[in-house]
């Protein structure tokens, strides 16, 4: 044990680590005792001679056990969970990430009952008097201020529509149902997307008001293969620029207050994560874009 301590002392002196006295109770700290090729080029191993390597590694293992502090809760990353930040692997995702951000800019869902545009929103039957009257579009606009604001901006238009459908009670009866049909205008086309914000909610009609620009790739984590395809999750930071003027108006803020609050927070960079899939050409594509192929 004395020889081991002496050897540890000599190693620690090389790394400027103060050794405790024999009477002291402090732990021996000699974390930098041995530097392997995997971390520093000072220690070179001949990987072609396994038995020589094994014999060489035995004293190192015992030395580390004698000189190091007890292991912490942090464990070394496995191959399936290895993280490389700002490395070669991270550089490979710059192009795929930019394509992902271009396809999915900063957007908001326009209505919880409108999966896409053109689309229809069912409304109650019209009030019946002496003559038939269609559902009131002004009342619809009053009850749906967000859609009304987008109509005022000239992005969408409303029309009444109706049709007979079978009763949901299964009695074979036909009943008249009424809808407001939402159409997209030429002015609204550049801002429109159909996006899945939440897998539980499904597709939503959305309007986009800002461009996402990549700032950095912070981590790349290899995930377990699925159906024989390689997967990787990428953590990155981005900022939003070129916010549309119509999204900063008081009228828009009143119609979509949650979006207005989100816009206020866009001055700072954001951190997000995206899943990527290696396609048939072994090129990385974001999972969202892969599903559209």
What does this structure look like?
The chain has helices at 2-14, 50-67, 88-91, 94-103, 137-143, 145-152, 250-255, 257-264, 287-292; strands spanning 106-109, 119-123, 156-166, 174-184, 192-198, 202-226, 229-241, 270-278, 284-286. With 293 residues, it is α+β, with helices and mostly antiparallel strands. Among the domains are: 2-71, no CATH class; 80-106 and 209-292, Nuclear Transport Factor 2, Chain: A, CATH 3.10.450. β8 (270-278) and β9 (284-286) form a beta hairpin. Residues 1-85 have low confidence and may be disordered.
> In sequence order, what are the helices and strands, one letter per element?
HHHHEEHHEEEEEHHEEH
Radius of gyration over alpha carbons?
Answer: 32 Å
CATH class of the domain at 80-106 and 209-292: Alpha Beta
How many H/I helices? 9
For the record, give the distance between the C-alpha atoms at the N and C termini, rounded to a whole number: 65 Å
Overall 3D geometry? flat
The level of helicity is 25-40%
Look at the helices and sheets and give the structural class.
alpha+beta
Strand residue percentage? 25-35%
Examine the secondary-structure arrangement and name the CATH architecture of the domain at 80-106 and 209-292: Roll
Overall pLDDT = 74
Weakly predicted, low-confidence segments: 1-85
Number of strands: 9
Per the CATH scheme, the topology name of the domain at 80-106 and 209-292 is Nuclear Transport Factor 2, Chain: A
Which sheet architecture does the biggest sheet show? 6 strands, antiparallel
């Amino acid at each position: 044990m004395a020889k081991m301590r002496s050897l540890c002392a000599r190693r620690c002196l090389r790394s400027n680590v103060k050794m405790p006295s024999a009477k002291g109770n402090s732990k021996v700290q000699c974390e930098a005792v041995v530097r392997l090729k995997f971390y520093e080029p000072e220690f070179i191993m001949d990987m072609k001679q396994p038995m020589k390597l094994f014999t060489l590694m035995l004293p190192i293992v015992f030395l580390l056990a004698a000189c190091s502090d007890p292991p912490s809760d942090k464990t070394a990353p496995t191959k399936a969970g290895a993280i490389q930040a700002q490395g070669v692997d991270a550089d490979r995702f710059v192009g795929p990430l930019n394509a992902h951000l271009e396809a999915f800019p900063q957007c908001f869902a326009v209505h919880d009952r409108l999966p896409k545009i053109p689309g229809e929103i069912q409304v109650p039957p019209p009030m019946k008097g002496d003559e038939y009257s269609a559902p009131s579009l002004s009342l619809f606009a009053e009850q749906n201020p967000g859609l009304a604001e987008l109509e005022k901006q000239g992005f969408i238009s409303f029309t009444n529509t109706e049709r007979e459908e079978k009763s949901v009670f299964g009695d074979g009866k036909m009943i008249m149902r009424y809808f407001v049909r939402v159409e997209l205008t030429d002015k609204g086309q550049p801002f429109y997307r159909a996006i899945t914000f939440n897998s539980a909610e499904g597709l939503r009609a959305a309007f986009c008001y800002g461009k996402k620009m990549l700032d950095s790739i912070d981590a790349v984590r290899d995930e377990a293969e699925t159906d024989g395809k390689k997967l990787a999750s990428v953590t990155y930071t981005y900022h939003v620029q070129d916010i549309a003027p119509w999204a900063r108006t008081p009228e828009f803020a009143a119609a979509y207050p949650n979006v207005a609050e989100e816009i206020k927070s866009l001055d700072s960079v954001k951190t997000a994560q995206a899943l990527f899939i290696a396609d048939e050409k072994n090129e990385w594509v974001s999972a969202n874009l892969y599903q559209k192929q």
